[in-house]
Each structure stands twice: as structure tokens, then as C-alpha cells.
């Protein structure tokens, strides 16, 4: 993988791993909710686009994988006697959705945007998991995050390939570049926080 994993325009601030390691309980809680939301997002896509046979076929196992990741993060929390606690606001995802999702317009374009938002979240998660797998002190968590990094890279590809199934690849790539630029701008203007996965 490149420095900016999966073509992301802006690498994570290197301070993030050090900040994160000091707040491992908080990051695991946030991570648990990220996995839960990823599963929910795939379910929503399946419900919304139930007429898209390939989408349903591809995303159904992703739901199971994301829920499995949620269960694995819960296990890591239990090992450390850390309660799950309440869900936190995800400023990163909220900004992506508010700046990139269309409220009206062509249905195929809306489908593409929904898939690409999910691809972007998976790509950033993959990059963060890579950093954790290479830098965090806890050996068990390093292995854990390496496994998740590989899985998230696969999910990223699922979303991109689905977008290219329903729209011309050239249009998807053009829109993807716009998404990457917006995501880089969002991260540039966000504080580096060690209690959040994104």
C-alpha cells in the first residue's frame, strides 16, 4: 500500500498514532461504533437498492463481516474491562455526508455517491488500521489491526467495483477524485484526536 493508502490525497497526521496509543480505550469504543455503523450502512444500501441484484449479493457478506468486526472489538474491550459506553458523534463521517451526498438528482448518480462515500470511509479506516498495525505497542492489537486493514481494503474495492457496475468507470473515477479532494480538505481542518478512529 502507498503512503496514502488506496490513493487518499492526505496521509494521516503522524501524531495520531501516538495520541491514539494513550487513549486505547477511547479508540476501541469509537472503533466498535464505526464497525456497527458500517454494518448498518450496508444494510441500508441493500434495503434502498434491493432491485440491484449484484449490490445485494456483494454487500450481504460485508454486513456479516462488519458485524463480526464489531464483535471482535467488543472482545478487546472486555479483555481490558472497558464498557462500550455511549456512541460519540462522528464529525468526519457527518462532514463527508453533508458535503458529498446529493439530496436530489439522477438516481444512478445518487447510488454512485452512496457507494463512494462508503468506499472513502473504508479507505481511511484501512489507512488508520495500517498505521496502528505498524506502530502501536500492544502486539495483539497490532495483529488485530493488520487483519482488519486487509478486510477493509477488500470492502473499499467492493464499493468502487459496485459503482462501476452501475455507472461508467470514467464517471466513477471522475467523481472519486472530487471525493478525495473534499476528504483531504475535511481532514486538513479537523483537530487531530486520539479518541476517534477518524
Automatic annotation (TrEMBL):
InterPro entries: Ferritin-like, Ferritin-like_SF, tRNA-Hydrxlase_MiaE. Pfam families: MiaE. This is tRNA-(Ms[2]io[6]A)-hydroxylase. It comes from Spirosoma soli.
Amino acid at each position: 500500500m502507498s503512503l496514502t493508502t488506496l490513493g487518499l490525497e492526505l496521509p494521516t497526521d503522524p501524531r495520531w498514532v501516538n495520541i491514539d496509543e494513550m487513549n486505547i480505550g477511547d479508540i476501541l469504543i469509537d472503533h466498535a461504533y464505526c464497525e456497527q455503523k458500517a454494518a448498518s450502512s450496508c444494510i441500508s444500501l441493500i434495503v434502498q437498492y434491493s432491485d440491484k441484484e449484484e449490490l445485494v449479493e456483494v454487500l450481504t457478506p460485508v454486513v456479516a463481516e462488519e458485524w463480526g468486526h464489531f464483535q471482535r472489538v467488543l472482545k478487546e474491550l472486555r479483555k481490558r474491562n472497558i464498557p462500550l459506553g455511549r456512541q460519540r458523534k462522528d464529525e468526519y463521517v457527518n462532514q463527508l455526508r453533508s458535503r458529498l451526498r446529493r439530496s436530489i438528482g439522477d438516481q444512478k448518480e445518487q447510488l454512485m455517491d452512496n457507494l463512494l462515500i462508503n468506499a472513502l470511509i473504508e479507505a481511511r479506516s484501512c489507512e488508520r488500521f495500517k498505521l496502528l498495525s505498524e506502530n502501536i505497542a500492544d502486539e495483539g492489537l497490532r495483529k488485530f489491526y493488520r487483519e482488519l486493514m486487509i478486510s477493509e481494503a477488500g470492502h473499499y474495492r467492493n464499493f468502487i467495483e459496485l459503482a462501476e457496475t452501475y455507472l461508467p468507470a470514467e464517471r466513477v473515477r471522475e467523481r472519486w477524485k472530487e471525493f478525495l479532494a473534499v476528504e483531504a480538505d475535511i481532514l486538513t481542518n479537523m483537530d487531530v484526536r486520539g479518541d476517534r478512529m477518524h
